[in-house]
Design a protein that fits this description.
Helix content is 41%, strand content 18%. The protein has helices spanning 4-12, 37-53, 87-97, 102-115, 136-150, 162-173, 186-201, 219-230, 255-261, 304-321, 340-347, 359-366, 387-395, 401-416, 424-438, 442-446, 481-489, 517-531, and strands at 29-32, 58-63, 72-78, 125-130, 153-159, 210-213, 236-239, 278-281, 288-293, 299-302, 330-335, 352-355, 371-375, 381-385, 454-459, 467-469, 474-477, 496-501, 508-513. The termini are far apart. The structure holds 2-acetamido-2-deoxy-6-O-phosphono-alpha-D-glucopyranose (16G) and zinc ion (ZN).
């Protein structure tokens, strides 16, 4: 049965703030760090129970608020294969997080254990990490209180990137099996990716150095590690790698800043030369955005859509060169935010599916392809290889040296790519591999297709009134609003617009694109006017 005494004592130390409602959303629980103590404690208990439910498999917990402001924080659970928490548990987590007293929490917990028939005699194992936020250590202490109240076997991964935490979960659960994911340590992660990278660029001439904006977050740590191991193979120049100045995290830098404001971080003004590639990570290093300035100093964004196009084209070419185009079907998954230019370019070459925002939706849809490439426009994404594909790659007998080379590259890509979740560092190495193979600069990469001008605005409207269908591309409620949007959109050349409630903030988002800049802006503001 549940260790009620230790749970009661621990729960008393972590009372829920009255009047606050918590919701396990697309990115776990996420809000002001100073309000998350009780939630994080309860997540510790839930993580341990999830592990017991899954026969002692290792569960991950990451404390981070990613690209959000430094005072925010968040906590999310990672399932045994390194994936997002199973959807049905999001609701249980929300219910438990909102219990308002220790007695209520213990009752709900007891009910929960009974309903799900959790065998409490099973072991529980949990690995956890946090980003660099100042509120992190106290939240981790609360998490540890929850874990030890149940008696979980714990492992502290310390300050680490979100994708490394996902890697550790997968590596620890598949250790010593035929599905082994690499050595179960952060060193194992760096080693696995670096050695795949070195094999993939062997014989290629080294690219010019790459500027990496680390968002003043934990990504700086990973960039430093890769720089050490990769040496001359890839020269990384870290900027915004200050982990000690309060308030610096994600402030006027990082992937979200660049994508949203469509300009370079001010801190790069004196560093970035025309034509030079640069990229930005976000605060927990699971998003990546590239860009460059042309000779006229004009900014060119190479976002998640451009990364998807670059990577998918390269993989399709390798599959063909390996003589496997009939065995392996490559497909793309996007969201409504994908630029119309990218969707057009990709659909002429590959099957493309559109799903609702949020990594779990993209990830699951990508699993339906033999090789599934998914990226959100915001720079979060990865590539999944199905287990049949891995088998095909291992067993295929190439009939020419060219086939053998392509097959080798594909196999190395399966090692380079972090298939558990989007990973800024793994994606960075992947992009650099493709650029080296194609001898592309940012300019050639950018020329794959032309982005339609677009605008994203937030509207402070009551988001619970907004319901969508068709992968968030159409509103079903409030009634009548979609017809008005359709009516407006018709008046713009290449016009497209949609409205959806945010899953992470208390706002409604409006996206619009059109053939020319002024029209995209106008359409966005007029649709926003309808919403308000
Ligand atoms: C979270 C999601 C991201 C999504 C964003 C949308 C994960 C790990 N992250 O950051 O995929 O694009 O939320 O936010 O799922 P929104 O609903 O506020 O627009
Ligand atoms: Zn992130």
């Amino acid at each position: 049965s549940l260790p009620l005494e230790s749970l009661r004592a621990a729960s008393d130390k972590h009372p829920k703030p009255a009047h606050l409602h918590f919701q396990y959303g697309t990115a776990g629980f996420r809000t002001l760090g100073s309000t998350l103590d009780s939630v994080t404690f309860k997540v510790g208990v839930i993580a341990a129970l999830r592990s017991k439910k899954l026969d002692g498999k290792t569960i991950g917990v990451m404390v981070t608020a990613s690209h959000n402001p430094e005072p925010d924080n968040g906590v999310k659970l990672v399932d045994p294969r390194g994936e997002m928490l199973e959807a049905s548990w999001e609701g249980y987590a929300t219910t438990l997080a909102n219990t308002s007293s220790t007695e209520e929490f213990l009752d709900a917990l007891d009910q929960f254990v009974k309903t799900l028939r959790i065998d409490l005699s099973k072991p529980s194992r949990v690995v956890y990490g946090r980003d660099t936020r100042p509120s992190g250590p106290a939240l981790v202490a609360a998490l540890e209180d929850g874990l030890s109240a149940i008696g979980a076997e714990i492992r502290d991964a310390g300050v680490t990137t979100t994708p490394i935490l996902h890697y550790l979960v997968r590596a620890s659960n598949y250790k010593g099996t035929k599905d082994s994911y690499g050595e179960d340590s952060s060193e194992g992660y760096y080693e696995k990716l670096s050695s795949a990278f070195k094999k993939l660029v062997a014989g290629k001439s080294a690219l010019p150095p790459l500027i990496v904006d680390c968002a003043n977050g934990v990504g700086a740590q990973a960039v430093a590690e890769f720089s050490k191991i990769l040496g001359d193979k890839l020269k990384l120049i870290p900027v915004n790698d200050d982990l000690s100045t309060p308030g610096a995290l994600n402030n006027a830098c990082g992937a979200d800043f660049v994508k949203t404001s469509q300009k370079i971080p001010p801190s790069l003004t004196s560093v970035l030369k025309p034509g030079q590639r640069a990229c930005s990570l976000d605060g927990d290093a699971d998003r990546l955005i590239y860009y460059y300035l042309d000779e006229r100093g004009q900014f060119h964004l190479l976002d998640g859509d451009k990364i998807a196009a670059l990577v998918a084209a390269f993989i399709v070419e390798l599959v063909k060169n390996a003589g496997l185009e009939h065995e392996i079907r490559v497909g793309i998954v996007q969201t409504a935010y994908a630029n119309g230019g990218s969707t057009k370019y990709l659909s002429q070459r590959l099957p493309v599916k559109c799903v609702a925002t949020g990594v779990k939706h993209l990830h699951h849809a990508a699993e339906h392809y033999d090789i599934g490439v998914y990226f959100e426009a915001n720079g979060h994404g990865t590539v999944l290889f199905s287990s049949d594909t891995l088998k095909t790659l291992a067993e295929h007998q190439p009939s020419t040296p060219a086939q053998s080379t392509a097959l080798g590259h594909l196999t190395n890509l399966t090692q380079l790519i972090n298939q558990t979740v989007g990973d800024a560092l793994s994606d960075l190495l992947l992009v650099e591999v493709v650029l080296a193979h194609k001898s592309y600069s940012g300019f050639e990469w950018d020329s794959l297709y032309v982005d339609l001008p677009n605008r994203l605005v937030k509207v402070a409207a009551p988001r619970h009134l907004f319901k969508t269908e068709d992968a968030e591309r159409r509103l079903v409620s409030p009634p009548g609003l979609q017809a008005k949007i359709d009516e407006l959109v018709r008046r713009y050349e290449a016009g497209r617009s949609f409205v959806r409630p945010s899953g992470t903030e208390d706002v409604v988002r409006v996206y619009a694109e059109a053939m020319v800049r002024a029209q995209a802006d106008e359409l966005a503001f007029r649709v926003a006017g309808l919403v308000y």
